[in-house]
Design brief:
mainly alpha
Length: 343
């Protein structure tokens, strides 16, 4: 078994990988910018073209921050859900939070046609979509919390989350059937996911939600390790299962809801990153797993965004499709190779 020094070395390597992938991400785009000018932008040097500084600071850097926040936040959400439910398939998608956010956006986009005029324009603004997405996640969260108050079995709560996801998907399908082509197209584009549409103000707001959710997760680290041994054993050690369950669900909803609101529904990351990290760091100590998952999620999202930009091409692919195309085969390969998930 590797010692703590080895794990610290792996964490340092992951941090270096985050920096390198972020720099590669900054260097890619429709406008070619030399690496020395990118470095000069950050270290106060002379940049050959002033427009390059603007492109880096106002477009590419916010997108890199969005990728880091999105990937790390979804990965932490997946880790929390998998530990709470002691199920390797748990995650924000399975709990229905992402589906609730999608329903909120679908109601705004496809329901705007019934109002028409200035009100329709107001409903279709970016902030309306963000608020609708957050409310959708919150409503599903409240429903799951009500169910969790009645049920002690975490597996039953997981199944209820799946049912909520099915219900919201059915409502979205009905709305899509009766919606005009223009609104349906707008919803479809939102569902593709995007990292490049956020201003600095929006990135700061997303950072506040991300930091709050992460701080709540950090407060549960010790109890997360205990929960892996089973609820009865955790209770015998004095762990409050109900309180910890509430804190974990709130942290997950803050992370998944805000990320879905700003970047759209992004699949796979929350489920896969904790498993990929456990292949590198095969421990169940969340004091090591949590920072590793944060950096692993950031690296995966940055790599997926690099692939989505199709270097050498003017086209950009949907980030939601890339996360599945890049990650799903990796998880299948790991499962076949190891015959089971490390959990």
């Amino acid at each position: 078994m590797a010692n703590s020094g080895t794990y610290k070395g792996i964490l340092i390597l992951l941090f270096v990988a985050v920096i390198l992938t972020a720099f590669v991400n900054l260097s890619l785009g429709s406008v070619t910018i030399p690496n020395k000018d990118i470095l000069a932008t950050f270290f106060g040097g002379e940049v050959s073209n002033d427009s390059w500084r603007y492109i880096i600071m106002e477009y590419r850097l916010p997108k890199v921050f969005t990728a880091i926040l999105t990937g790390s936040g979804l990965a932490v959400s997946g880790l929390l859900m998998q530990t709470l439910f002691r199920n390797p398939l748990a995650g924000p998608y399975v709990l229905g939070l992402s589906s609730g956010a999608s329903l909120g956006v679908a109601l705004v986009i496809m329901g705007a046609t019934f109002f028409g005029g200035p009100l329709a324009g107001l409903l279709l603004s970016k902030w309306s979509l963000v608020i609708a997405s957050s409310l959708g996640s919150l409503l599903v969260l409240l429903a799951v919390l009500l169910a969790s108050a009645k049920l002690r079995d975490t597996m039953a709560i997981l199944i209820i989350g799946l049912m909520f996801a099915s219900l919201t998907a059915a409502v979205v399908s009905v709305l899509a059937y009766f919606s005009p082509a223009a609104q349906l197209q707008q919803y479809v584009f939102w569902s593709f996911g995007s990292l490049g549409n956020l201003s600095w103000e929006e990135v700061i707001i997303l950072t506040i939600f991300w930091a709050t959710g992460l701080l709540l997760a950090i407060t549960c680290i010790k109890n997360l390790n205990t929960l892996l041994l089973g609820e009865q054993y955790a209770r015998s050690l004095g762990v409050s299962i109900g309180r910890n369950r509430l804190v974990i669900i709130i942290a997950t909803s803050l992370l998944a809801g805000s990320i879905t609101a700003f970047a759209g529904p992004i699949a796979f990351v929350g489920l896969a990153v904790p498993h990929l990290i456990r292949q590198v760091i095969p421990v169940n100590d969340h004091r090591i797993l949590l920072p590793a998952v944060v950096m692993g999620g950031a690296i995966l999202m940055l790599v997926c965004d690099i692939a989505a930009q199709m270097p050498g091409s003017q086209f950009t692919l949907p980030i939601n499709a890339i996360t599945s195309l890049v990650g799903a085969p990796v998880v299948i390969w790991l499962l076949v190779r190891k015959r089971k998930f490390l959990f």
